[in-house]
Structure formats: C-alpha cells, structure tokens
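Handoff note, outgoing to incoming analyst
You'll be picking up this chain. Sequence as last confirmed:
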Amino acid sequence: MQSIFKSGNLDVALRSIDESDLEAEDLVMWMDENLHEEAKEPDDLASAYDILSRADVFLGGRVSRKQHFAFRMYAQEIAASSAQFIGKRNEHFVKYQFPSYVKKMSDMRESRNTRNSLLMKFRMLCHMGNEAASSSLWILSELRKRKRLWDAIASWLHISDKEEAFLRSQ
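Most recent structure output, in case you need it:
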C-alpha cells in the first residue's frame, strides 16, 4: 500500500500491485479504507474517491455481472491511478488499516457459526427442528440465570465459552 500511495508514480504502483497477491476487489477495499489517511485536501480526496468508484463500478459491472474476468487488471489500474490524484499527500508515516468490511463480515460469520453450534446442541437436547429451536433459544438464556441448573446443562451439552458469551449477549 505504501508504494501505491507514496510513490506518486503510476508505473511503480502498478508494479507493486503485480508483485502482491491482492485481487482487484481486495485492492479497492484496501484503498477505500486508507485513502482518507493519505489525502490532506478535501478536493484531492474527492477526486481520488471518484476514480476509485469507477474501478468499483468496473469490477461490479463488467467483471462480476458479465463474467469478463480478464478485465480485472483494468480495474486494478484504475484503482491504482486513484492515488495519483492526491496532490497534497500526508508526509508522515501512515499505518494502513485492514478493510473494516472484511473484519465485520468475518465477525458475523463467527457469530453465526457460534449460534448454529448452540442451536444444534439445543435441538439435540429438546428433540426439535431448526425453526422451533431457533425461536426457543431464549430458554437457554433464562436457564443461564439459574447457576446450578446451568452448570449441569452446560457441562452435559459441552457449551463453549463463545457459546456462553453468545447467550449472554441475547
């Protein structure tokens, strides 16, 4: 990311993208997350985001919808060129952030997997289907309030710490 943002040279930026293992979609997400840290002027930021949005539209329309995967390299070039539109750059060290969208999606998947694991154990305990167990999951939250009973149920069902934290959040 540093060579893309700090170089000021499109050839250097494209070479660093070619040497990296970033896909075009990942590159757009990384640049979206960190572009505001590099641009000091609002006009520069607006023009850089305008170019980056064109790369995103290119990826969504021509690559994803029409299945023309050879056009990914053009989207990468458009995304890399968005950093070239920054006139006044941040001269200080910038710690580039991981895309928050990917982090949120990962957290949601982990939460969903924890919930599904808990539902499976609850279904087996009560001999019920998925929908009935899902609508009755509140019962486990209520049972958590009774310490002795909960300890017995939790040990019998092998409730993990993540699953118990999930119940606490319900």
